[in-house]
Amino acid sequence: MRTINRLTVSVIKGLVSNPPEKNRYFTDGNGLCIQVTPTGTASWILVYQLNKRRRELGLGRWPDVGLAEARERAGKARKQRTAGIDPLGHKQEAARTARRKESKRLTFSEAAAAFMKKEWDGWAENTRKSWTHSLELYIPTSFGNMDVADIETDDIMEFLGPLWKKLYSTAKSLRSRIESILDWAAINGSREKGLNPARYKGHLEHALATPTKKVEHQAAIDWREMPEFMAKLRKLDGKRGDVPQCLEYIVLTGVRSEEATGAIWREIDLAEKVWRIPGARMKMKEDHHVPLSSAALKLLKALPGNHKPDDRVFSTVYNNKVSGQVVRLLLPELGYPVGTATVHGARSSLRTWAAESAKVPERVAEALISHDTRSGTQKSYEHTRFFEDRVPVMERWARFLEGGKVVSLADGKAARKRAASVKAA
Fold first, then answer.
1. What is the pLDDT of residue 103?
2. Distance (Å, whole) CA 112 – CA 110
3. What is the C-alpha to C-alpha distance for residues 256 and 342, in angstroms, rounded to an integer?
4. How far is CA 349 from CA 58, 254, 360, in A?
5. What is the distance between the alpha carbons of residues 415 and 152, in angstroms, rounded to a whole number?
């Protein structure tokens, strides 16, 4: 009788059709056997010795694995054994590796959530909001659903490239965040370690050209729509600290974002109804005095805290300083997608309203937003920069924002009294 290739397909079919009363091994030779059970199922086994111990390597079920394929698999296993590799141990390790790999599989969105969870406690509230909103706004759903193991440069460039040209600063931050997430995924075992497709130096820098700087006008809401904007803003819940109030204050006063977020109570004079911003915090490095309307005063008085001189006027829910980025992130929440409105654009809304609706003289209108068109001699004598003229304008602006109500600008006596007190100070 032959010592190898003893079995045939017809023999195997006969064994399965008339199964034994207990499990039996039928040899094909050279260690290859087919095990047949009383229920008529059959599977291939390679029997070999390792360290004088019997080892059995499963090669698959019959008829899923036919006779020819079983012999081929047995041959490959015997070659491993000859090379000093335990076929069964190799198979078990491969299975364990596959299970570990499967358990580590993550989509980009899942990896981003896991990375942020790891870093969350060490992040300031501003950082948390910035990361959350940027990933939600700019990561396409298709990319978020990709397995991090499959992400390549082209997948990132598909959406980052257009964003890089349109919103350079935003795209720079987003690229860095994607790189951090993919680095974490590699360390976690969810993708191959090696060069990160989101890295900039020596990689994306060759595909993403730095845009030439040019003057861009900040997107602004039409002044006629500002009452509606303020109504939406005032409906936001209190889970954001003083951030909504900070944005409302920016609109009411016409200041730049950083001037409001950096305000301290020492600068605020509620009795005289004026906010004195020191030159060190102004763009042009000159003191700027802002008349406080009734609405602005009401907002300030309602803010929580002890209002000590050196306390911040506006704080996050975790009592941190409010950042301009966090203020900007309110706009999409209010229904103004990126590119349709900016915080800085509120100054443009005020300036245009002053010219088109309130008919404010140009130099006074410019002073509302701390632009100075005066000569050097005039600056020497007009310390408050049309403060008296700005008082009723700011009150009228506040009333307009409350619903388009118009109040008279003929408030000269009260305005002069307030201006005099400011000059004396």
1. 58
2. 5
3. 11
4. 76, 9, 14
5. 64
- The string of DSSP letters for 129-180 reads HHHHHHHHHHS-HHHHTSBGGG--HHHHHHHHHHHHHH-HHHHHHHHHHHHH
Overall residue count recorded for the chain in this entry: 425
Which pTM was predicted?
Answer: 0.51
- Prior bond of 63 cis (ω within 30°): yes
Residues 40 and 74 in one domain: yes
In sequence order, what DSSP letters do the residues of 366-381 get, joined into one string? Answer: HHHTT-----HHHHHH
Which pLDDT does position 309 carry in this prediction? 94
Residue 407's nearest CA partner among 311, 302, 326, 294 is 294
**Count of domains forming the chain:** 3
Q: Classify residue 3: in a domain, yes or no.
A: no
Query: Whole domain around residue 156: which residue ranges?
Result: 108-206
d(CA 249, CA 232): 14
Q: What is the pLDDT of residues 83-103, one digit of tens each?
A: 888 888 777 776 666 566 655
| Phi, psi dihedral angles at 47 (to 5 degrees) | -100, 130
Q: State which of 103, 125, 155 marks the end of a domain.
A: 103
Identify whether residues 88 and 152 lie together within a single domain.
no
